[in-house]
Amino acid sequence: MAAAPQQSVHPSLPSSTSTLRLLISSSPRRPPPPPPRARRYNRLAASASAAREMPWPHVLTVAGSDSGGGAGIQADIKACAALGAYCSSVVTAVTAQNTAGVQGIHVVPEEFIREQLNSVLSDMSVDVVKTGMLPSIGVVRVLCESLKKFPVKALVVDPVMVSTSGDILSESSTLSVYRDELFAMADIVTPNVKEASRLLGGVSLRTVSDMRNAAESIYKFGPKHVLVKGGDMLESSDATDVFFDGKEFIELHAHRIKTHNTHGTGCTLASCIASELAKGATMLHAVQVAKNFVESALHHMTDSGMNKKWGRSIKEAVQAAIEGGATIVQLREKDSETREFLEAAKACMEICKSSGVPLLINDRVDIALACNADGVHVGQSDMSAHEVRELLGPGKIIGVSCKTPAQAQQAWNDGADYIGCGGVFPTSTKANNPTLGFDGLKTVCLASKLPVVAIGGINASNAGSVMELGLPNLKGVAVVSALFDRPSVVAETRNMKSILTNTSRT
Ligand SMILES: Nc1ncnc2c1ncn2[C@@H]1O[C@H](COP(=O)(O)OP(=O)(O)O)[C@@H](O)[C@H]1O
Ligand SMILES: Cc1ncc(COP(=O)(O)O)c(N)n1
Ligand SMILES: [Mg+2]
Q: Which spans of this chain does the record mark as coiled coil (predicted)?
């Protein structure tokens, strides 16, 4: 058996593994790069077999159209596309709707809904059906009949009854067919607190403990999982959802974003769950990805200049992250002018130097050289790690973002010290960045000869589960929004660090 490549701790880096970003350098001795032709052949072979083995994940949404484009079919198609799933649609109703409310509803005749269902399900290979607005008993029944005729891998039921604006989208008589017929076929149902209350005869839901009781009661109607969503519990500082699988309750927390633009969050969440299930994720993972996506999307809509938004300079943010326990800082600045970026980098360098925390610069070798930073992190479309090494010399740290085992191998060949792997979850800080999920992260970690830092949508509610994957090469996580798009960077960093410390001990 070949010996594993020797790894030595970079002299300028702390040696603990329970860090926000821990970067470990590899042995300077590397094998020569394989001849180019062989590499090209392998890449082609890999992509052809991947295409054969992984047909496009397909979600069918059975829902109403929202003329305003924020909820319903329109939200579903956008969410599925963002998560890399194909989305076909059966329209149950056409609504005249905008951000203020629903002005009119035109219900599609039941027989025509049956015809749409037949057209799609009899011809295309649908993985997951996701339901939204089902306006009448008859529509629910038509759907149940079609699903019995054309079974799918999973059914996600979002029991849409009343819109965020308070307008009725489904007759109250549908409650009984939802409970007695559709729920029993569902893999997950996702009521908000108002819908959960109506399904349970009007019980009041004010606390997380009430949400747990409601999830347990709704589970008894027959779905395999229940997610009671707390977006409408406006008095709570967190947006907490309760997940129940029949045995265990899991609370999913997100920071409550101060915005009134939550129209369509429920539709987006259910479509994300459906997309992840279509890609083969487990239910809990699908729900976590979806929750994260909605939180990121709300963040993105409200503000992107996180530190500016919270009234801090980049220097203050770095100071606070270090005080909270960050062990490596990476400076990423996409929008500022070079001179402004360099000034910020120099200011950060001073703080990092005095605290013994290495500072890496994203993409910009020139900035790193000008402020004598400890290293550079590059993406796949930037200069290669090999070229960066030539410019920076042997003593500096070089990181490369990788999504595939082939990229990880190339990073090793090129003389990088670590790889960043992601996005693990969807994130608002990088547009159009396909997510890898736990499976993608695992594949890259197991193949990589270099230490790996997980990145993308990582926050306090999912960092533990990333580290609990127990991947030997996974040395830490890189975090942006979860620390900086918050009122207290010190508190968030401390919290994140304690989560990582606890999971690395277990
Ligand atoms: N202001 C907010 N900040 C963060 N997450 C939110 C906010 N509002 C809703 N969410 C989340 O969006 C998802 C949809 O929830 P909710 O709005 O309760 O459903 P619905 O749209 O069906 O009423 C849930 O995961 C919820 O926690
Ligand atoms: C056609 C249609 N379907 C669903 C919703 C619910 O969305 P939300 O509860 O987020 O307003 C909506 N408003 N319109
Ligand atoms: Mg909502």
A: none
Residue 466 confidence (pLDDT) above 60: yes
Measure CA of the first residue to CA of the last residue in the chain; give whole Å: 30
Same fold, 58-279 and 306-505: no
The answer on pLDDT for 9 being more than 80 is no
- The domain defined by 58-279 folds into UDP-N-acetylmuramoyl-L-alanine:D-glutamate ligase (3.40.1190)
Average pLDDT estimate for 69-95 = 97
Helix (H) or strand (E) holding 130: strand 128-131
Q: What is the largest CA-CA distance in the chain?
A: 72
pLDDT tens digit sequence for 264-276: 999 999 999 999 9
Question: Relative to the CA of 190, which ligand 1 atom is closest?
Answer: 22
CATH classification for the domain delimited by 306-505, as one of 3.40.50.2300, 3.30.428.10, 3.40.50.300, 3.20.20.70: 3.20.20.70
- Surrounding ion ligand 3 within 5 Å at CB are 164, 231, 262, 265-266
Residue 5 CA, ligand 2 centroid: distance in Å:
54
User: What does the DSSP 8-state code read for residue 26?
Assistant: B
Of the pLDDT bands very low, low, confident and very high (cuts 50, 70, 90), residue 392 is: very high
The DSSP-derived string for 208-250 is: HHHHHHHHHHHHTTS-S-EEEB-TT-TTSSEEEEEEE-SS-EE
Which residues are catalytically annotated? 229, 262, 264-267
**Mean pLDDT, the chain, as a whole number?**
84
> Residue ranges per domain, the chain?
58-279, 306-505
Ligand 1 lining (C-beta closer than 6 Å): 164, 192, 229-232, 239, 241, 254, 256-257, 259, 262, 265-266, 269, 291, 294-295, 298
Which amino acid makes up residue 491? A
Give the whole-angstrom CA distance, residue 377 versus residue 382: 9
